[in-house]
Amino acid sequence: xxNSVRRLGGRANDHLRSLKVSYNVFGAKxxxxxxxxxNTKVLCSVTMQPGVPHFLKGTGTGWLTAEYAMLPTATAVRxxxxxxxxxxxxxxxxxxxxxxxxxxxxxALDKLGERTLLIDCDVLQADGGTRTACITGAYFxxxxxxxxxxxxxxxxxxxLKDSIVAVSAGILQGHPILDLDYSEDSVIEADxxxxxxxxxxxxxxxxxxxxxxxSWEHFxxxxxxxxxxxxxxxxFFDAQQPSMTFVPSKVADxxxxxxxxxxxxxxxxxxxxxxxxxxxxxxx
Length: 284
Description:
about 25% helix
C-alpha cells in the first residue's frame, strides 16, 4: 500500500507504530507487562483468585473480568482519578467490558474451575489506541501467567483456546490507515477497532463514521489492514526471545524504531537491584 498520507515518522499506511514489551513489572502477579504502542503505554496484569460471581456458583465454571483505568496524567490535560470521583466514567466501563468479552472468548472457562481471572489495565500514557493496546497487552500478560500456573501446578492444562490481539484502522483524507495515533484519531473520517484471533477469526469490531458514511470498499480495505496489523503483532509476540530485536514486516529501518524485547531473567535482576518498577531504571 502506498503511503498516500503524511504520517509522523514517515510511517506507511499499513505499518504499526513501534512496539515494546517488558515482562514481570509487578513482582507479586502471575503475569504482568508494560506494553508500548508508539507513545501509548499501558500496564496490564493478571490475577487468579478463588470464587466466581453468584450466577456461576455451583456450576464448576470459572469467570474472567477486567478493569480499565487511565491515570490522571496519561493525557496532556490532567483527568480526575476515578477513585476520587467514587465511580468509573462511562468510557472506562465500556472499555473494561470490551477487554473482558474479548479475553473470555478464547478461554475454556469450564476448565478453570470455580476461580476468577482478574485483568487490570492501567494507561500510563495515552496517544491513541489505548483500548487496542490494553487488549493486546492483557493477552501477553495472560499467556505469561498461564505458563506460570502450569509450571506451579495451579492449573493442570492450558485453558487458552486461541490467541488474540487488537488493532485500530481508519479513513484519513480518503485513505485507509492502520494503527491511529492521537493526532490522526482526532481528525479521522472513520474510526474502527478490530479484535482478531491468530486463527484469523473476528471477535469484535467497533467503528463509526465521523464525517461521512464509509463505503463497503473502504471497509474491506480497513479489514485487510486490520488482518495485516494482527499478523505483525503475532509475529512480534512470537519473536520474544532473549536479547532480540524485531521490526514489523515491511517497516523501513528509518521509519519506525526497532522493537526491543526484554528477557525475564534480566527483568528479575533489575528488580533485585532497583525499585520494583521504574521507567527511569527500566533497561528494556
